[in-house]
């Protein structure tokens, strides 16, 4: 297992002013007993509302923060004690922080990182070529980083994080603030990385489309604890998400008519459009039953909306 | 050696970055050199007026001032920018230093390397060589070795102060200029013979905090003069030990400080 976390806790002392001089200190656990195991080559989505402890977890895993309690191993190393050794084996993109040299051309940042990580020139060039092809960097490697658009910079950050061939890639909100095209570029790149299978990816995001398109496995954290660890489907099942069928009919829907295996949740357009919510039965059966009642003109099956499920979890 | 090359790359990149803002870079360079010239002029004015301080004549006082200036400028060039730590901690940018496979302190000073401070070092060293020539040094083998080592040792001492002072930011972000009281205050203190100061203030700064070991005691050794304060003679050769202790303490503060780093919400 490339990431092993058990009983991780991270406390922060918060001082608040009480009166003129007196200060009150309270201890807040940003992460409160997180267990997490990630296998080599997995791509997991790590999500939760603001302040749930996502970034704190990532910072503990990357050696930025010292845990208050618990055991953490990444690539078999203790992130704080073995920080510099681990740094060579992981790549990190924190959406809000840059790893690049602000005033230098993007290409010079890449070259500096080659020296900092002591990557052999040939390996470095090969990885840079791959990233450059997939992320289309050619147009702006000679532009100073401060003049790049956010989308260009994020593509640069991804490349910078991968040039030393890390075993694990930590991404904290890599699509935040990006336009649709840049988001697609980043997602496409991560999907390709996942397909190659030699990089483990831990991704935090507020963009649930990222999760739907990329992550087999989803870890949801709330109030510093893991509240779900499994597939997206398992999440829907657990929280009672239902698929729906919307059917356009050739004849009006008979009032009070029921369908086995589904509940009629809406009748619209003078009875010629009906919405059914499945109770877990296969869509085919329900459609067949429906067709026996009235002739069908058109039909669509809608998957449950991930936003709704996640909102339900966040609300508790 | 390999890591020295890595830092050299980072420093060169920083110089290239600064050169992007050419006007500001030139103003900084000339401004800093003008300030140094004024500093040195102050020393000369002082001597032309008083002719001696704290029981020492012009030559010995000049030697102490020059040794202090050389030590301080070396430290300032190497790690003076450590005080930028405050900004890094406040903004959470310290994260990015922790994510690279290099020492955080070395990165902090390499990334913020201020080329203009080299000018100050040259000025400080020139002044020191002049002082050695005119102060009436009692040249022996020991004195020759000490003359070479003293500014480096003093640099390590001041450097430790810069670093230790900067670490305050790990606990107290609004630390402001507190650390400067010890670095810049220490430079001013060491520029003069400690006999000039009196009572508990002298005991605290000169002995307890070790400032006498930067310029005063090594200068006494170079000049082969008895100490008016009656400190034992062997003490004046102990500056390297004091500097080493200071460096170890600074490194310890840094280590504990990094463990205490809280980052910022993202």
From TrEMBL, chain A:
- Note the Gene3D superfamilies from the entry: P-loop containing nucleotide triphosphate hydrolases
Entry GO MF terms: ATP binding; ATP hydrolysis activity
Membrane-related topology note: Peripheral membrane protein
One GO-annotated biological process of the protein: response to antibiotic
User: Which InterPro entries does this entry report, sorted A to Z?
Assistant: AAA+_ATPase (IPR003593), ABC_transporter-like_ATP-bd (IPR003439), ABC_transporter_ATP-binding (IPR050763), P-loop_NTPase (IPR027417)
* Coiled-coil ranges (or none): none
The answer to whether the entry has keyword Ribosomal protein is no
Membrane-spanning ranges: none
**UniProt keyword Nucleotide-binding, yes or no:** yes
Entry GO terms, CC: plasma membrane
Alphabetized, the UniProt keywords read: Antibiotic resistance, ATP-binding, Nucleotide-binding, Transport
Domain ABC transporter per the UniProt entry, residue ranges: 16-248
Q: Where in the cell is it found?
A: Cell membrane
For this entry, the protein name equals ABC transporter, ATP-binding protein
């Amino acid at each position: 297992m490339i990431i092993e976390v058990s009983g991780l806790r991270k406390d922060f002392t918060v001082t608040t002013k009480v009166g003129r001089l007196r200060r009150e200190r309270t201890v807040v656990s940003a992460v409160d007993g997180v267990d997490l195991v990630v296998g080599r080559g997995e791509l997991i989505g790590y999500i939760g509302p603001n302040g749930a402890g996502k970034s704190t977890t990532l910072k503990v895993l990357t050696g930025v923060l010292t845990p208050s309690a618990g055991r953490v191993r990444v690539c078999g190393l203790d992130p704080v004690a073995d920080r510099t050794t681990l740094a060579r084996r992981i790549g990190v993109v924190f959406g809000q922080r840059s790893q690049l040299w602000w005033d230098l051309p993007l290409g010079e940042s890449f070259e500096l990182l080659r020296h900092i990580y002591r990557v052999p020139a040939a390996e470095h060039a090969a990885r840079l070529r791959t990233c450059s092809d997939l992320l289309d960097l050619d147009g702006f490697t000679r532009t100073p980083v401060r003049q790049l658009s956010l989308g260009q910079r994020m593509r640069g950050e991804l490349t910078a994080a991968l040039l030393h061939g890390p075993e694990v890639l930590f991404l904290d909100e890599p699509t935040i603030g990006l336009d649709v095209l840049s988001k697609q570029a980043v997602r496409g790149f991560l999907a390709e990385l996942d397909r190659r299978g030699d990089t483990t990816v831990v991704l935090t995001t507020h963009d649930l489309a990222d999760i739907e398109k990329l992550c087999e496995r989803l870890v949801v954290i709330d109030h510093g604890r893991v509240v779900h660890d499994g597939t997206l489907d398992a999440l829907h099942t657990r929280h009672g998400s239902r698929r729906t069928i919307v059917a356009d009919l050739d004849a009006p829907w008979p009032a009070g008519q029921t369908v086995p295996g589904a509940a009629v949740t809406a009748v619209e357009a003078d009875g010629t459009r009906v919405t059914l919510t499945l109770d877990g039965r296969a869509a085919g059966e329900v459609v067949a039953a429906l067709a026996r009642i009235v002739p069908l003109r058109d039909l669509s099956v809608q998957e449950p909306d991930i936003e709704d499920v996640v909102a339900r979890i966040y609300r508790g | 050696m390999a890591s020295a090359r890595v830092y050299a790359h980072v420093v060169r990149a920083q110089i290239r970055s600064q050169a992007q803002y050419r006007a500001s870079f030139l103003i900084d360079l000339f401004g800093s050199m003008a300030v140094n010239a004024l500093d040195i002029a102050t020393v000369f004015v002082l001597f032309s007026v008083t002719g001696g301080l704290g029981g020492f004549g012009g030559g010995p006082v000049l030697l102490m001032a020059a040794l202090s200036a050389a030590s301080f400028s070396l430290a300032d060039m190497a790690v003076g920018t450590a005080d930028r730590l405050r900004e890094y901690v406040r903004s959470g940018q310290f994260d990015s230093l922790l994510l690279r496979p290099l020492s955080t302190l070395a990165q902090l000073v390499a990334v913020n390397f201020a080329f203009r401070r080299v000018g100050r070092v040259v000025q400080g060293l020139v002044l020191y060589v002049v002082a050695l020539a005119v102060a009436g040094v009692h040249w022996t083998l020991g004195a020759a070795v000490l003359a070479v080592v003293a500014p480096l040792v003093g640099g390590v001492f001041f450097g430790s102060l810069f670093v230790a002072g900067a670490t305050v930011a790990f606990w107290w972000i609004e630390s402001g200029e507190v650390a400067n009281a010890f670095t810049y205050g220490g430079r001013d203190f060491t520029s003069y013979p400690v006999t000039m100061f009196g009572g508990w203030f002298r005991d605290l700064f000169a002995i307890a905090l070790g400032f006498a070991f930067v310029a005063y005691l090594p200068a006494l050794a170079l000049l082969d003069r008895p100490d008016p304060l009656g400190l034992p003679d062997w003490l004046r050769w102990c500056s390297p030990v004091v500097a080493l202790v200071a460096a170890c303490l600074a490194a310890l503060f840094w280590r504990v400080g990094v463990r205490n780093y809280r980052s910022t919400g993202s």
